[in-house]
Design brief:
CATH architecture of the largest domain: 3-Layer(aba) Sandwich
Distance between the termini: 74 Å
Strand content: 15-25%
Largest sheet: 9 strands, mixed
Structural class: alpha/beta
CATH superfamily of the largest domain: Periplasmic binding protein-like II
CATH topology of the largest domain: D-Maltodextrin-Binding Protein, domain 2
């Protein structure tokens, strides 16, 4: 009887030890990557789980970025956040204010699981800078894209045009490319496509040397309605109404571009898969740098990765290992090739896979070249999302003729000043 009891205890102890050794830490990764982007991300998650049997990452597709933002804020308030999530910079500002995320520098500096100085320096400089708040590294880059000028190569070849390098050349080419082929008084091909959005406005504004708000020491000055801002919005309106060379719609322009409705437009590099599909069988295409105006300064887009405080330490460490994996040279290269987003590591640009990708089509190197040379950061005050909404309203009001560009931006500036006061 004693021997049986002894054997039973040994078996129980063995099972307990085995269970401890094979224990899996499960974490949720909240994201807004759908379609082809989501498929590529799921491949990465599956590969990570296979290579890390002690960690199980559950990818949770939330839907739009707006839905993700709301879900994150609600989860933080309820004390039930994910271990890791995509976040925009202005979200991060609010999450820091709410003491909801762990600064990733705590993991980066860990001698056992962190990053070496060389690995930190390997992160593309502008992307690294984008993740620092008050000298502290809170997040790290993931799906980064930049705006580019998409070109219908067939249309440009027929007219013998070089790709525009300046805003003046953009207007000149748009005039030539705007054509009524059958003479019925209706334009069949517009030289340019434009969206009445804050992001389009911000591209022209920054290229014109302007900013929505400007930081001078401890002071934040609203500059959206200065002469540079008014000139930028007026130019956008003139493309549509004065020169009549731009086709305007609120949605993405890959469709009209693919059918030949527009010969060029400014859009995100992350739209590459959709442009490929839209143009297939219709015409060739390429992209180039956003044309310069008074300067060359291009905002870039996309989210970063944050690790949350409202989970266990084990889950935070697991989230860090997954984050580290996502930004590794191998995975960021895979992600960029599959999606049109940019690699976030310099070493990825030297990899065999990336070099072969460039040989297939040299234009694949343009996005990260532009971002590294001319990328600029957006401001990120506490009320930035609300500020963007005010500017969005102003752009739409001006583009649809409800207000003059000056009146629209003056009205937005008044509201922005109020929001900055609220956010103090």
């Amino acid at each position: 009887m004693k021997n049986l009891l002894k054997i039973a205890l040994i078996l129980l102890l063995t099972l307990l030890i085995a269970g401890t050794l094979t224990a899996t830490v499960t974490i949720e990764f909240w994201h807004a990557m759908g379609g082809g982007h989501g498929k590529a991300l799921n491949e990465i998650i599956t590969k990570f789980n296979q290579e890390h049997p002690d960690i199980h990452v559950k990818g949770v597709y939330v839907g739009s970025y707006s839905a993700l933002n709301q879900k994150l804020l609600s989860a933080v308030q309820a004390g039930k956040p994910p271990a890791i999530s995509q976040v925009y910079e202005d979200w991060t500002t609010k999450l820091i204010y709410a003491n909801a995320i762990v600064p990733v520098e705590e993991f980066v500096n860990d001698p056992k699981i962190g990053l070496s100085k060389d690995e930190v320096a390997d992160i593309i400089k502008i992307f690294y800078k984008d993740n620092v708040w008050n000298g502290k590294l809170y997040t790290l880059p993931f799906n980064k894209s930049t705006s580019l000028l998409f070109i219908n190569t067939d249309a440009f070849m027929i007219e013998g045009l070089d790709y525009p390098k300046t805003v003046d050349e953009l207007l000149k080419d748009a005039k030539i490319l705007t054509q009524d082929w059958d003479g019925d008084g209706k334009i069949d091909q517009y030289g340019f496509g434009i969206r009445p959005t804050i992001d389009t406005f911000n591209i022209f504004l920054r290229s014109n040397g302007g900013k929505i708000i400007t930081q001078e020491g401890t002071r934040t000055i609203v500059t959206v309605n200065d002469e540079k801002g008014i000139e930028a919005l007026q130019f956008m309106c003139d493309l549509v109404n004065k020169y009549k060379v731009a086709y305007m719609q609120g949605g993405y322009l890959s469709g009209p571009f693919g059918t030949g409705k527009v010969a060029m437009y400014i859009g995100s590099s992350a739209g590459k898969p959709y442009v490929n599909s839209a143009c297939s069988g219709n015409h060739g295409w390429t992209w180039t740098y956003v044309p310069a105006w008074k300067t060359r300064a291009v905002p870039f887009m996309g989210t970063n990765l944050a690790i949350f405080k409202g989970v266990s330490k084990e889950q935070q460490i697991a989230a860090w290992k997954f984050l580290k994996y996502l930004i590794s040279p191998e995975i960021t290269t895979f992600w960029a090739i599959k999606t049109g987003y940019m690699p976030v590591r310099y070493s990825a640009l030297k990899s065999k896979e990336w070099q072969e990708f460039l040989k297939e089509d040299p234009k694949n190197g343009v996005p990260v070249e532009q971002a590294d040379k001319y990328g600029v950061l957006d401001p990120r005050p506490l009320m930035w999302n609300e500020i963007r909404t005010e500017v969005s309203n102003a752009v739409r009001d001006a583009m649809y003729g409800k207000k003059s560009p000056k009146q629209a931006l003056d009205d937005a500036a008044k509201e922005i000043k109020k929001l900055l006061q609220e956010g103090r």
